[in-house]
Amino acid sequence: MAYAVISDVHSNLHALEAVLKDIGDRRIDEIYFVGDAVGYGPQPNLCIDLLKKDCGILIAGNHDWAVLEYISTEFFNVHAADAVTYNREVMTDEHMRDLEGFNLLKSSEKRNALFVHATPRDPENWDYLFSVKDAEINFEHFEQKLCFIGHSHTPVILEQSQTGEILIHRASTEIKDTSRYIINDGSVGQPRDSDPRASYVIVNDSSIEIVRVQYDISKTQKEMEAAKLPFRLVERLSYGY
């Protein structure tokens, strides 16, 4: 049975609603979330409500931890830090408690998969997995066939063959019995691969597919402007970077 993996919603309600509708239209019942419910965008409470309602696994990301003040925004850029402050100020106590319940990482025996926001090697360090070398190192730090990550906002499927070769897939791939996979589903709320459409992943018994979904970006931008969030964050949604 197919399932979906989403991440990096970043308080973008309209993008999340569009993705959840697309998943529902495909009659996919199981959804897993791999971090960053909040930050950047204007609607953290409503996004958390939807994620709680629809997702079987809820993973925390670095922006989630920053809003909870588990980590400092010292190494965030100034716009991201301002958005963290805004999200913290508008979130209810109930939704803060919800966020506290998100896991740092979680495995699923049913899916033979590990779910983590940044990397399986050092999930609490919030490192990025960008290169083939990064992939080689991180494949050594989980035992499951599949590992789902977010964090970079850039969708990609990394396949490790039986010989250890790393293959890169940008759209889809079949699942081979002799391979293992690290899958970055991209970002629902703030893509950064020069494609402004929301991104998520569908997995079934035989394949992995990166899916893009159009949503009304202008609605989110107007809400961000009303919230007086940094213009840089508003503008970048139009360009996907």
From TrEMBL:
CDD domains for this protein: MPP_superfamily
InterPro entries in alphabetical order: Ap4A_hydrolase, Calcineurin-like_PHP_lpxH, Pesterase_MJ0912
Ranges for domain Calcineurin-like phosphoesterase: 1-203
Listed transmembrane segments: none
Protein origin, superkingdom: Bacteria
Name of the featured protein: Metallophosphoesterase family protein
Lineage: Bacteria, Pseudomonadati, Nitrospirota, Thermodesulfovibrionia, Thermodesulfovibrionales
